[in-house]
Amino acid sequence: MTADNKTEKLQGRALFEAIGKPKTIVAPMVDQSELAWRILSRRYGAELCYTPMFHARLFANEPKYRDSMWSELDGDKEKDRPLIVQFCANDADYLLKAARFVEDKCDAVDLNLGCPQGIAKKGNYGAFLMDDWELVHKLIRNLHDNLKCPVTAKIRVYDDWEKSLEYAKLVLDAGAQFITIHGRTRDMKGQATGLANWDLLRYLRDNLPEDQVFFANGNILYPSDLQRCTDAVKCDAVMSAEGNLYNPAVFWTKTDDIDMQFRRVDKMLREYFEIVKEVPGEASRHAMKSHFFKLLHAFLNVHTELRPVIGKTSVHSSFDEWEKIVVRVEEIVEEIYQKDNISEIDVVTTGEVQSWGGSYKTVPFWRCQPYFRTVNGEKQNTRVLHVAATEKVEKTSKKEVKQDAKVQTEESSTKRKPSEELEGERKKVDIEKENVTI
Ligand SMILES: Cc1cc2nc3c(=O)[nH]c(=O)nc-3n(C[C@H](O)[C@H](O)[C@H](O)COP(=O)(O)O)c2cc1C
């Protein structure tokens, strides 16, 4: 690739327009934003999807790893575009080598600069590259100069607004064509997740070149939050991770129809399951258990008898076994719809506006909805949970922690073991299961 080739690549806003000016984005999610999930999310309003983060060196060097993450249908022009493929890396050569495997099969390659987990610290990638700007610049520039497709980046912020701005400018100067900013710092993870800072995102947006394509990430619970975020940040598009996992229709804004925005879990589960059966590759099979748990989260709080049934499944379970679970969910929800008072109970209500600017909704347990946990006896979402993080963590009762741990154990028993490092990635996903953000 030469400098001439570089100029042929679509850049910035031209690239954004070429991929249809997406407004809604499925976030990169390890083991969770795989092909089947992307297909489902696109049907419910996602206009751009990111793959899960792939480990650049493994992707470059280990065909087994690559095959487990990427199938012939990933990046398919009809079914899986626009698509951005994300890598984590700390070596420019490996990153380029990995990216070359997908440069013809996606719209851009993204560098993960946001993962704050211990595994990223150990491997020196993700948010830990925030300490080595020179390396960040080199990684992005090498792709910008040598890859056929454009490069983008997803970053976290610093507490210091000016430093965040300088960092964003460096990432863009290196050649990133889109920037996604997750409005949390590297320390805002796990129990200290807290609110993403939209004011800071707005500050960055306002101080970057006007034409810069800017994606905001953080705090999306409901479809109605998308416009709130766009208005607050003045961003081009909004990315959601966790909101999308619990409700793939979080991006549905074409109508206010609750049958779309908060779809019945039996229907969503069936649709997802039928997609998994159709798509090739291992990744979608491996993600099933976790998706079942998340899609059914509220439902399983009532129908606890299904929890161990899903818990016992593994990647080796036959589709017939999964089918039984899907059918059981369908039967239970159908029974609910036989109730005489169904029209009275099948409603979504919106509560008062909260201090963080949005409102909680009450959604029937048989409909997809965001995940809340209880802290200090209060219904809370992990995204808005820790406005006063430390104080709340200290007060969280042991019982609540235990309950969360139990859910985590049941959801965690799906794993692949292609290599030690890959196993590390899986562990990270297991940590993620209860809403630790990357
Ligand atoms: C299960 C899960 C997996 C994630 N994996 C990745 C990843 O592979 N790459 C990345 O950049 N961020 C990853 N993240 C972080 C999200 O992309 C996003 O930045 C973060 O969750 C905040 O968005 P949210 O408030 O919509 O959840 C992950 C988050 C979750 C919940």
UniProtKB/TrEMBL annotation:
Reaction catalyzed: 5,6-dihydrouridine(16) in tRNA + NAD(+) = uridine(16) in tRNA + NADH + H(+); a 5,6-dihydrouridine in mRNA + NAD(+) = a uridine in mRNA + NADH + H(+); 5,6-dihydrouridine(17) in tRNA + NADP(+) = uridine(17) in tRNA + NADPH + H(+); 5,6-dihydrouridine(17) in tRNA + NAD(+) = uridine(17) in tRNA + NADH + H(+)
Enzyme Commission code(s) on record: 1.3.1.88
Record keyword Transport present: no
Keyword set includes ATP-binding: no
SUPFAM superfamilies: FMN-linked oxidoreductases
Record-linked InterPro entries: Aldolase_TIM, DUS-like_FMN-bd, tRNA_hU_synthase_CS
Cofactor entry: FMN
Keyword field: Flavoprotein, FMN, mRNA processing, NAD, NADP, Oxidoreductase, tRNA processing
Chain positions covered by the region annotation Disordered: 398-438
Residue ranges of domain DUS-like FMN-binding in the record: 26-285
Signal peptide positions (record): none
Similarity section: Belongs to the Dus family. Dus1 subfamily.
Name the record gives this protein: tRNA-dihydrouridine(16/17) synthase [NAD(P)(+)]
Organism field: [Candida] anglica
